[in-house]
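[agent] plan:
  1. take the single chain provided in the ticket
  2. run structure prediction with default settings
  3. attach structure tokens to the ticket
  4. add a short note for the reviewer (M.T.)
[agent] executing step 1
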Amino acid sequence: MTVIIALFLSVLNANAFQPGTNSKQTKIQYLSGTGMDDMVEWDFYVSEGRKSGEWTTIGVPSCWEQQGFGAYNYGSDDVKTRAKEYGVYKYNFHAPADWSNNEVKIVFEGVMTDAEVKINGKLAGEIHQGSFYEFKYAISKLLNYGKENLLEVKVNKVSANESINHAERDADFWVFGGIYRPVYLEILPKEHMERVAIDAKANGKINVDVFTTSKKASSIQMYLSDDKGNKIQDLSVTENKSTSEKWNFSTKANTIKTWNPETPNLYILTIKLLNKKNEVLHSLNKRIGFRTVEILEGDGIYVNGERIKFKGVNRHSFHPKSGRTTSKAWSVEQAQQMKDMNMNAVRMSHYPPDVHFLDVCDSLGLFVIDEICTWHNPMLDTKVARKIVKETVVRDVNHPSIILWANGNEQGWNPEVDDDYAKWDIQNREVIHPWSIYKKTNTIHYSHYHSLINDAYSKEKILFPTEFLHGLYDGGHGAGLEDYWNIMWNLPLSAGGFLWDFADEGIERTDRNNEIDLQGNKAADGIVGPYGEKEASYFTIKEIWSPIYIENRFITNDFNGIFRLENRYHYTNLEKCSMTAKWINFNGPDGKNNPAIISQSEVKLPNLAPSSKGKITVNKPQNWQSTDALHLTAIDPYGKEIFTWSYPVSTPKDVSDSKIDYKGSEVIITETKDKQIRIEANHITYRFSRETGMLQEVKKDSTVIPLSNGPIILNQDQKIENLTITPFENKVEITIVYEKTDKSPGWSTVKEYASDIIKWTVHANGLLDLKVKFKGYRNLKGFRGITFSFPEEEVAGMKWLGDGPYRVWRNRMKGTKFQVWENDYNNTITGESGFVYPEFKGFFSGLYWSKLKGKNNNGFTVYCKTPHTYLRMLTPDAPADNKRDKVIPEFPAGDISFVMNIPAIGTKFQYAESTGPHGNPEHYFGNDDDLISLDLTFKF
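[agent] step 2 finished; step 3 output follows
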């Protein structure tokens, strides 16, 4: 048999065309909307809960809780008190008379949970069980042609199958009820193809299964088109083994481009079913990509011959307004955010997603692990599991983005259906058991950093955790990722991994005035907020998973312009990307935020193959040493920013000295009275304690600027040895010397160490210098630095030169950029409330200067002349459900601090110490004899 094969691009539904035409393609007529943005009203009745007991209307598709019906439940709710309502839907639709010559099927893309479907009062087929799976019924014999027809659907929120309830409704996610995905009619020719399954290999070979029961079908014709619909090639094919219901063909396409996440090339396969007269009986268009997947035992996961490192994330199909009902636009937005974070993979947790999300993964380029819904023990019963596996694979088989199947989650696997995937998958993709050592893979969940040495009895398995660094509030995700990724990237048997998870699953409760509910710490797991708000880890991931890896670099006077880098793409030569270097100067605290670009040039990226190392040279302008910073921005072949790396050039002292002016001949008044030192200069009055030297009050004219009670040297318990006041012509100095200590914390060694010293200098023009010297011994726990009090209610915002705009933790330093930033005050609790990012409160690295904006006061500016200083701005509120102390780091006393070390943050299941070296609380500050000098200037 000779067959012609063609592929061309489909925008939304390659089989769809307008009803009433004579085309032999499948007609699609939606009875519902296509998603959350275009619901169609159906008649509706709910048995219990809100709006129950009377007929009204509801938008379809939707989760009925989000339309004000029934009651809410999270999977961990007590089964005895869990809502058990059912809903009944009715919808009238017209069936044109000419449909009587067609085969008509009704398709449900997803119903929660058991669905009984009737057409004109008659059952369309057996009750469907399982929330996340597409199902359809042939209804031609039930229709009244040329008349109105009644569709009735009874949906039981709780399944009659207890194993489905355990898999879907006892899990760690929100559970809903309703027809939550689209419903439509397929109008096919009487003689038609039921479906096709396609395997398109990277070498151009195509294998096709055509399923048909047509008695008139005699041959197949196919052709290949590009993504714009232009015909590429007619190909003769070979007919292989065929049965009465399945035909199999093979052929080879010429001059094709392969599919991968970096170059997701797509084609359309047009398949025509012909009768003996070569007349077209039915025509289908299927979008495909050419790629080959191999799992090589003891080696790795290969796609198109390249060993893959998954830079992946887990994702729920979820929207805060509409629950599990989403839209193609939402799928595009979320996939674009993943790509922007330099991810290349996504795991469908823990159920098959909307079809449009897989379409987007195909077109934008993301590897996919597709998964059926199970949850721990007990597993799905075998009968329903077999049905669910078939429904999943049959629907999704042709997506090139899918490279693995997951037979459930975390001990929910039913091994009796492992081999069922191959029955329906022409590509014979491998099956994994997430959180298990199974066959060739080890997908352990939430392993500690030390486990990545991979020296257990399963060390020959391919190691890729399908969940790791479990996010919670501001912990996990980016925190610890640098340490993990350094091992994962360099470990031959590591295939990367998948972070948990993409977005906070916070639902707008329609029974609580639309407040966001995250079920305490159960659903606050995201890198982004419910609406896609970017948390700090978003940018940390973007830098760490950048396909252009640049070694850490510091620019000093010896800078030679060379940066060493590595191409961490799998398929792309580095010369296809571009890079720009900008030498920048920043304005001061009272200037505009936009920087001055002193010099800009293109950086020639080398001809560097994937996984290769090389170097680049940045042109140094004549005055480069007088600039403040260098920014390097990399752009991918599609014009998208990969990342912008920033490097301070001038030191904090250089920048501060250029902006501080001590000139002034105003009179300084100094008096000591009632255990206070009062100094007045240029309309500013300072009050210090005569006993401790601590700042007690600052007043500018008649306005109090409430910075006080400092500096307290953190983790210092020595007594004051003496305090001296020394007046000069244009300044006054207050010097506090502490007693010498004879022991270093954590050590039993007796030795005399240098004294800690605090020195205030009030200048005639009102500027206030502060120099503090304190010991830099090894710090087992606690902070080294100083702190002050400043009432939070008096803070309006902050502008600063340093790393930003997000706060940092010791094990999440990457993802920031050095420049001038400005944040208004907010009280966001990451992942719980507010969702205004970046968060205002926390630790900020690389401080050069900061201007605090006050409420009811003038605030102040502080210049920091000491490198590598962290600004601590207030203390973030702890979440209400803060049982997970692993993600609540310790903060120093006071409100505003200047410190040389900061804590790490853990994950939902791990203390920071187990996430790698950066999570360890121990710090080294040189020898015990060394003193750290902290040099600040305050301007009020």
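[agent] step 4 note for reviewer: Residues 378 and 527 are 31 Å apart (CA to CA).
[agent] ticket updated
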